[in-house]
Amino acid sequence: MTLKERYAGVIDYFGRTMPAPETELHYGSPFQLLVAVILSAQCTDKRINMVTPALFEAYPDAEAMAQATAEELFEFISSVSYPNNKAKALAAMSRKLVADFGGRVPDDADALQSLPGVGRKTANVVLSVVFGRAAMAVDTHVFRVAERIGLTTGSTSPLTTERTLTRHIPAELVGKAHHWLILHGRYTCKARKPLCEECGISSLCRYCQKNGRTIH
Asked: How many Å apart are CA 195 and CA 212, to the nearest integer?
């Protein structure tokens, strides 16, 4: 199987079985998505969705959150991973967003990454989900699944994976592909024990082929 054939097969499968994938983070505005993605680093979306309703009720927008101290924000997010660092990042991010961007989330990668707590992955999520850009956010699921399936080979960093995926996936599908790979990694192609017997792309998967686990 050629790389082109593998990409075509994977895209065809997910296009049919998951035509409208979405982020599992709950949010009501671009700012709230930005906050949720910052909080989600090394934490589950389920946990983030448990803490953000109260956080967003108290601080619904950048202007409100910019008035909060890190200590006040910590009280709302203490159950997430690295709450001290994330509380400080949210407080600083909100203040800079108000001071530099009038409280509006920018639609530019460099501008987004100028905000405290916002790296390339977070910026790409916002660009893709909010602004519909062909931005591939590579988290641990995307990095693992792309390599395991065989969409990448010997990828050494999230940036390498991002560049490879965006080179082979049509621009209009990059945003969907981000969700396809995350959700596939979250529920089927799990890190410790991939559920190959339940996988619809096992016949396309390099891992399954190498381990004689092709089901479909």
From this structure: 14
Residue 176 contacts residue 184 (beta carbons within 8 Å) = no
**The pLDDT value given to residue 210:** 85
Q: Are residues 186 and 155 in the same domain?
A: yes
pLDDT of residue 211: 79
Total residues found in the chain within this entry: 216
Q: Does some domain include residue 127?
A: yes
The answer on 184 and 166 residing in a single domain is yes
On whether the pTM is more than 0.85, the answer is: yes
pLDDT attached to residue 61: 97
- 210 included as an active-site residue: no
Number of domains in the chain: 2
- Catalytic option among 61, 86, 88, 139: 139
Out of 4, 121, 176, 193, which one is annotated catalytic?
121
Do residues 108 and 61 share a domain? Answer: yes
61 is catalytic: no
pLDDT < 50 regions, the chain = 216
CATH code, domain with 176:
1.10.1670.10
Rounded Cα gap, residues 139 and 120, in angstroms: 10
